[in-house]
Design brief:
By secondary structure, the protein is an alpha+beta fold. It has helices spanning 15-53, 58-89, 170-177, 188-204, 206-222, 227-241, 244-247, and strands at residues 4-6, 92-105, 113-125, 131-143, 151-163. The protein has two domains: 4-163, no CATH class; 170-254, no CATH class. It is built from seven helices and five strands; from the N terminus they run βααββββααααα.
Length: 256
């Protein structure tokens, strides 16, 4: 079992669904690890081919390097296909991956340098698209040159569950319109709870989203003595104006 951090209130989904998604995330993490270990072995083979190519005459060297670079590029592309396939098997949708490599120690000539790779592989739940799963993997490896990996250890894995706004949707735009510099730590949790309600409602449909917005407006107006709430309220009205299909479903005169 890997550590799983949940970055939203427990009431968003039922305990049963939370247990189910955590179990599936653990299974998914194991598959991700297997994919990355296979990827590392293939990268090692590519590194060996780069080394062997150095022994070729110049003309053959350039042709071989071109072939190796194509194989390497296809190897990275194939990661997407593998993540897609495994995600579907476990009722997730694959979104994207990111990788960042950091050299921890430059060693003397002849001794492999020590590097650490930091991976983030991003998925959403197939049934609850508003739940985003980020699997973080850290790997230490040893490279004689930047492309050559002698061996790799995937020694640290964790996952984070968070709420994901619809791309280009109302909740995403609202989050952009709020200047979070004005939101104090004291009121941040309650404001985020309101945002979560809007995020989840947007995935359910336009009527549910309109109702959630009306509920949030009422909550904000009850706390007008808090300037953080006033700021969110103004941002919410601004966002409503940007979405005519939502504005026509909300009786703004009752709330302004």
């Amino acid at each position: 079992m890997i550590p799983i951090e949940v970055e939203f209130p427990s009431g968003i989904i039922s305990p049963e669904k939370m247990e189910d998604i955590k179990n599936r995330v653990n299974n998914l993490a194991e598959e991700v690890k297997n994919i990355l270990e296979e990827f590392s072995r293939e990268i090692e083979e590519i590194g060996k081919r780069y080394e062997e190519a150095k022994q070729l005459p110049e003309e053959e060297y350039e042709e071989e390097i071109s072939r190796i670079e194509e194989i390497e590029q296809n190897l990275y592309f194939s990661l997407d296909e593998k993540f897609h396939s495994k995600a579907r098997e476990l009722s997730f949708k694959y979104v994207d991956y990111k990788i960042d490599s950091v050299c921890l120690m430059n060693c003397p000539m002849g001794i492999p340098n020590i590097w650490r790779d930091y991976w983030e592989i991003i998925f959403t739940d197939e049934q609850m698209e508003y739940i985003r799963v980020v699997i973080s993997v850290s790997a230490q490896n040893y490279r004689e040159i930047s492309i050559t990996k002698s061996y790799t250890f995937y020694d640290d894995m964790s996952a984070t569950l968070m709420l994901s706004t619809k791309e280009g949707g109302f909740a995403e735009r609202l989050m952009d319109n709020i200047d979070w510099n004005y939101i104090r730590d004291t009121w941040y949790p309650s404001i985020m709870s309101m945002m979560y309600d809007i995020i989840v409602a947007e995935y359910k449909g336009l009527d549910e989203l309109a109702q959630a917005i009306e509920d949030v407006i009422k909550q904000l107006k009850q706390g007008f003595w808090i300037y953080d709430y006033m700021h969110v309220y103004r941002a919410l009205l601004t966002t409503i104006e940007e979405f005519p299909e939502i504005k026509e479903k909300i009786k703004l005169e009752e709330y302004t």
